[in-house]
Design brief:
The structure is a homodimer of 492-residue chains. By secondary structure, chain A is of the alpha+beta class. The first copy, chain A, is built from 13 helices and 25 strands. Chain A has helices at residues 12-22, 39-58, 79-84, 125-135, 180-200, 247-251, 276-285, 311-330, 345-354, 365-370, 391-415, 424-430, 445-455, and strands at residues 26-28, 35-37, 62-63, 69-71, 88-99, 106-108, 113-120, 144-153, 167-177, 207-210, 222-229, 235-245, 255-257, 263-265, 267-274, 302-306, 335-337, 359-363, 372-377, 383-387, 418-420, 436-440, 458-463, 470-474, 481-489.
Chain lengths: 492, 492
C-alpha cells in the first residue's frame, strides 16, 4: 500500500490529518491557516451544498450576496457582537501596492491608506442588517429570508484542516421578521433542517438543543445547535441557528410600519454550517483504512477494477464494465472504472478504500466466464461474489443499505458512549474517557465555568429532543436543585 | 407605474442603472465599490453558474478552492503579471482589532502587524501555481484541470454595478499540461465553451478572437476573448481564456518528469467569466420597460395574474392557475402566481415587465368562462388570447421561441452595426456613432496605441470565426500592408 495511514488507536489526531491529506481532501497552503480544498474534497462539499441549498429553498429561503468587507465601525455598533467577534480578524488598511523604490518587488503604497479600515467578514450580521435597513419599510416587506454561500475569515491561532481554519467556506442565513414568535420559529425550523441533513445525508446522529448562555453566539438571545460525537468521544458542534431578538435591528435602526401603523423594530435570526462538516464526516465514519463516505455524499459511489491476464480478457471485462456503468448511471449513480495500466489491482483497492468509495467491483477473467463479479463494501469491508443478472438493482439497493448502516453504526457508537452521571468525582474521571455525560446543572454561568476550568468539559447543549432529560435532580457540581439534565463533553 | 425607468434614448447609462436597481438585481453597499447582489439578481447568476459548471465538467474540469489571500511576494515572481496586476488591490496588514484605549469602539492593534502583507486575490494564478508545484511530479499527474467559483477584489476607482466593481464573483479555471499544443487546445476549447454558453443561454451573439498583444492578460502569451455588442454600440468583453505558456511554471518552478525521464516546465492556461455577464445580459436585451430575460436564465419564466370582481371568481381563477402551474412545473418551468391583494393588475404587469419575466398570463372571469387566457410575451410586448386546451405545451414551445427571438434580435442589431471601414477620416467619425468597425491593422502596438489615443477605440479582437476577415489590405492608420481585418470598437 502506497500511503500508510496512522491507526486511530495510536494517534487519533494524526489519523485525522492523514485522512485529510492522503485521501486528497485538503492541504495547507502557503498562507498561514488557510487551506486548499482539493478536487476530491471539494466534490464532497459541493454535494453537501447542493442538498442543503435545496432544503433551504423548500423553506422559502433565497440566496443573495453581500460584501466581503465590513467597515470597522460596524463592529462597534452591537456591543455584545464586538466583544465576541472582530478581534482576531483580517484588517485591510491599504488599497495599492507600488514598485519598491529601493529594489525589486513591490511594497505597500503608504499614500493609499484607507480612511476607515475594512474587516474581512468573520460573519455578516452587521453589513446585512445595515442593508436590510433599506429593504424594510412596512410589514409587507417581511419576512426577508436570505442566505449566502461564501468565504469568511477568523484569524485563528491554532488551525486544523477543516475543523478550524483562518478562512473557511460556509453558508449564513439571515432572516428578518415582524414578530418574536415568527423569528424563534424560524431559528427552530432551521436547526431542524440541519439535524435532518446531518442524519439523512451525512449519516450523522446529532443531538439538537439550546446552548447555555455562556456558549451563545455573540449578540444572540438564544443559540440552537446540533452536536455530534466523534470516534474519540469528543463533541463536535456541527451547525448553529440563532434567535437574535431585536439586537441588530436596534443597532442598525431597522424598523417597520406595522399593520396598525406603529413603528416596530424587526426580529432576526441567523444560522450557518461550514466546511467544518467535512471534519465531522471524516471523524465520525473513517476507519484505519481511510475514509468511509456515505453514498449520499460520495463523489464516486462505485469503482470498478478490471483484473486480467490477457489483452483479450482485458477488453472483454472492460466492455462488461462499461455496460454496468451505463446502467448504474441511468439510475443516478456515479461510477468510475479504474483502468490505469501502471498500477496493480491491490494498490487500486487500497487507494479507493482510502478515499472511502462505498462500493468496489472487481472482475477477473474467470468472473466474466461465470457471469459473476466481486462486490466489496467499504463500510463493512466485506466481499461477496454475485451473479451479473440484475447487478444494477443489487447495487442500487446496496447504496441505501450502506447509507443506513453507516448511520446506525455511528448511532450505536454514540448510544454506548452517552451516560448519566450524578457524582462529581466520577464526572472528573469519566469525562476524560470521552463520550457525553448527561448531568444535572444548576443553570448558573458560574458553575459552568468552574466545571470547564476543572475538567475542560463544556455544556454542549440543553437537549430539545433525542434523549429523555427532563427529570428532577441536583446539580453535579453545586448540589443545587435542577429539573433537567444537560449534555457535557470535551469538544473540538 | 410605480417605478419609472429612464429611456435608453434619453440617457443610456442611467437606463442601465435604473434597470439594475429597480428590477432588484443589485445595489451599492456601504463599502465603496462593493455591491450587494439581491435575491432576484443572484438567482440569475445561479442559473448562469449551474449551466456553465455543467459545461466545464463535461470537458473534464473539476472544482477546487484556493485561498482568498496571496502573500505579497508572490506577485513579484512573474514580472509581467506584477506589472499588470496587484497594484490596485486590497492589502491586509494586521490580524487583530482591540478596544480603543481612548474611547468607545475598536481600533487596529498595532502589535498585530503581519510579517508579510497579504493581498486579497485579484486573480489566483500565483497561489495556484505555487500549489501545483506540489501536485505535479510526473507526466502521469498531468493534465490538471481545476476551476474555482469565488470572489476576487480589484480596487477600481470608478465602479458600476456588475460591470466594474471592487469585489466581484467569478470562476477562474487553471489548467496544467505537458505540452504547449495541449495547453493551447485547452484555451481554445474553453473560449468556445464561453461562446456556446453566451449564444445558447445568454442569447448573446459574440465574436471569438485573439486579443492584440497590448490587450493580453498580464503574463499570457495569447488571450482569447468573446466580444459582445451592447445596444449603445459599445463592445463588452464577456469572457477570456489565456494561454500562459510556461511563464507561471518558471516563476514557481513547476516541472514534471517526462516519459523519457527529462525534467520539463509545465504549460498553463487560465480562463474566467464573472458577474460582468449580468451587465451584458441587461444591456444586450433590456428595453425601456425593463429587463428582457432569456427563458434559459429567468428565475421566473411564467407569471400569472388573476383579474377578478368577485371572491368566487377569484377562487375559480386561482384553482385553474394552480392547475396550469402544476403542469408547467412538471415540464421543468418556473412559475409564479401573483395573488397579492394590495396591488392592481396594471401595477403587477409593469412590475413583471420591469423584471423581464418572459411570459405573463392574465385570466379574468370571462376568460375562465370561455376557457381562454391572455398570454403576453415580454420580448415582443405582444398579447394573444388562446384556448386553455394544451396551454402547457403552447407555453413550453413559446419558451424556445422567445429564447431564439431574443438571440436573433441581438444578432440582427449587431449585424446592422458592424461594417468595414478603410478610411481613417471616416473611422474617426464612424467609431463615435457606436458599433464595430472591421479594419486593416499593421499589427504594431504603436499604431494600436495611437488609434486609441485619438479615438478611444481599441482592438476588441482578431476574429477566429464569426466574420470573414482574411483579406489583403492596408492598415487604416499607417497604410502599411495587412492580411486581415480586426474588430475596432469603443468598449466597456
Amino acid at each position: 500500500m502506497a500511503k500508510e495511514v496512522t491507526k486511530r488507536s495510536e494517534n487519533y489526531s494524526q489519523w485525522y490529518n492523514d485522512l485529510v491529506v492522503k485521501a486528497d481532501l485538503a492541504e495547507q497552503s502557503a498562507v498561514r491557516g488557510c487551506m486548499v480544498i482539493k478536487p476530491y474534497g471539494y466534490a464532497i462539499w459541493e454535494k453537501m451544498q447542493s442538498v442543503l441549498d435545496g432544503m433551504f429553498k423548500k423553506t422559502g429561503v433565497q440566496n443573495a450576496y453581500f460584501p466581503l468587507f465590513i467597515p470597522k465601525s460596524f463592529f462597534s455598533r452591537e456591543a455584545e457582537h464586538v466583544a465576541g467577534f472582530a478581534k482576531e480578524c483580517a484588517v485591510v488598511t491599504h488599497h495599492r501596492l507600488m514598485n519598491d523604490p529601493d529594489g525589486k518587488g513591490v511594497v505597500v503604497d503608504p499614500s493609499a491608506k484607507l480612511e476607515e479600515e475594512l474587516i474581512v467578514r468573520p460573519t455578516s450580521e452587521t453589513i446585512i442588517w445595515n442593508t436590510y435597513k433599506n429593504w424594510i419599510k412596512s410589514w409587507r416587506d417581511l419576512p426577508i429570508l436570505c442566505n449566502q454561500w461564501c468565504n469568511v475569515v477568523r484569524w485563528e491561532m491554532r488551525t486544523r484542516l477543516f475543523l478550524r481554519t483562518a478562512e473557511f467556506l460556509w453558508q449564513e442565513g439571515h432572516t428578518a421578521h415582524a414578530t418574536s414568535e415568527e423569528a424563534q420559529a424560524k431559528a427552530y425550523e432551521m436547526v431542524q433542517v440541519y439535524a435532518d441533513f446531518a442524519r439523512s445525508c451525512l449519516a450523522l446522529p446529532v443531538i439538537v438543543g439550546h446552548k447555555s448562555p455562556n456558549e451563545r453566539f455573540a449578540g444572540a438571545l438564544d443559540t440552537l445547535t446540533i452536536e455530534a460525537m466523534m470516534q474519540d468521544g469528543k463533541a463536535l458542534q456541527a451547525g448553529t441557528s440563532h434567535f437574535l431578538g431585536q439586537n441588530f435591528a436596534k443597532s442598525f435602526d431597522v424598523t417597520y410600519q406595522s399593520k396598525e401603523g406603529t413603528q416596530e423594530y424587526v426580529w432576526a435570526t441567523s444560522w450557518g454550517v461550514s466546511t467544518r462538516l467535512m471534519g465531522a464526516l471524516i471523524m465520525a465514519h473513517g476507519d484505519d483504512n481511510g475514509l468511509v463516505l456515505p453514498p449520499a455524499l460520495a463523489p464516486i459511489q462505485v469503482v470498478m477494477v478490471p483484473i486480467f491476464k490477457t489483452e483479450e480478457g482485458h477488453q472483454a471485462i472492460l466492455d462488461k464494465m462499461y455496460e454496468i456503468k451505463k446502467g448504474l448511471e441511468a439510475m443516478g449513480h456515479s461510477v468510475k472504472i479504474d483502468d490505469r495500466d501502471t498500477l496493480r489491482p491491490g494498490f487500486k483497492f487500497a487507494e479507493w478504500e482510502l478515499k472511502g468509495v462505498p462500493v468496489r467491483l472487481a472482475m477477473g477473467e474467470r468472473d466474466l466466464a461465470n457471469s459473476t463479479v466481486e462486490i466489496a463494501r467499504r463500510d463493512t469491508l466485506t466481499k461477496e461474489t454475485v451473479g451479473l443478472e440484475g447487478i444494477e438493482q443489487h447495487i442500487h439497493a446496496l447504496m441505501d443499505d450502506i447509507q443506513n448502516n453507516i448511520y446506525e453504526k455511528a448511532l450505536q457508537f454514540r448510544e454506548s458512549n452517552i451516560r448519566k452521571c450524578d457524582d462529581w468525582e466520577e464526572f472528573k474521571t469519566e469525562i476524560q474517557k470521552g463520550g457525553f455525560l448527561l448531568c444535572h446543572w444548576d443553570g448558573s454561568a458560574e458553575t459552568e465555568q468552574k466545571i470547564k476550568d476543572e475538567t475542560k468539559a463544556t455544556i454542549r447543549c440543553i437537549p430539545i429532543d433525542s434523549c429523555v432529560c427532563e427529570e428532577e435532580g441536583k446539580c453535579i457540581y453545586s448540589g443545587k436543585p435542577s429539573n433537567r439534565r444537560v449534555v457535557f463533553a470535551i469538544s473540538y
